[in-house]
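Next comes this protein.

***
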Amino acid sequence: MPGKASRYLAATGRARVVGLALALIAVLVVVVVSIAVGSRTIGPGEVLRVLFADDGSTDATIVHTLRVPRTAMGILVGAALGVAGAVMQALTRNPLADPGLLGVNAGAAAAVVVGIGAFGISSALGYLPFAFVGAALASVVVYVLGSAGRSGATPVRLALAGTAVTAALGAVVDALTVLDPATFDRYRFWAVGSLGGRGVEVFWAVLPTAVLGLVIALCLGRSLNALALGEDVGRALGAGVTRTRLLSGLVVTLLAGSATAAVGPILFVGLAVPHIARAITGPDNRWVLAYSAVLAPLLLLVADVIGRVVVRPGELSVGIVVAIAGAPVFIALVRRRRVAHL
């Protein structure tokens, strides 16, 4: 029996590695498609040629100044949202949790509205510090409210505090935008969630915090596995409950805050991708985090390409396409009971 068990685990491990490698190959293919497709389609061969040899042609200018920064932003934002959602669901043991549950999106939105209305900010780079600070402050407020009392920061209390803060900040945003139509006019372009119109400077601005969040998250997989068995069992296995929760909250703030600040709120990715990853890998959070970091960029880039094609010469924002195309797939997965339990 021990021999059979070890062979089964080895075969499962190899299948997970092969699956992850195939997902990475799929991402590379979509990256080429993302660079090639747009209002001016460039052949894959030409994409690869000008990508490594900038000859100053129109195609090379489009690739280097527009398509590559947009695709890189899609990879970074997708990985951040997917991993943030996986951490949120593992931390709260709530299958419907996503980064918005801790008030991240609402905090960022409220801060952006204040930045537009009070300081006249009108650029994507200008929104960045407001959105990130707002997301961080909202997360801190949620954690303080959720940890008040003798029982401390339980998953249920954190979820309730996040819901309350999100509702309150949503009301603030509604009030400010209703009172000032000019603020609403600028805010709606950020709030729709789009990879377009974000320059390379926005990518470099959010890269350090997003990478830091991804590294910490991937290191938390073993502790999240221990906490999934319950607090007492987790402590017995050597996992620091409070430390894991604090680091998980920090990770969600860094990842979701960076992504939301860069491109606006994009829903569904952080909710659905961890479920898809869990259906492939099982409940081991180490693999769920790794797969989420790869599958989420894949989903986001495919949605962005679809948005550029379906309404040519215009385009749909990626946030709208993800919601329209991804929701039926997610519902089908749930109805067919292929989503693994937390």
In short: DSSP finds 14 helices and no strands in the chain. The mean pLDDT is 83. The longest helix spans residues 2-36. Residues 82 and 292 are 5 Å apart (CA to CA).
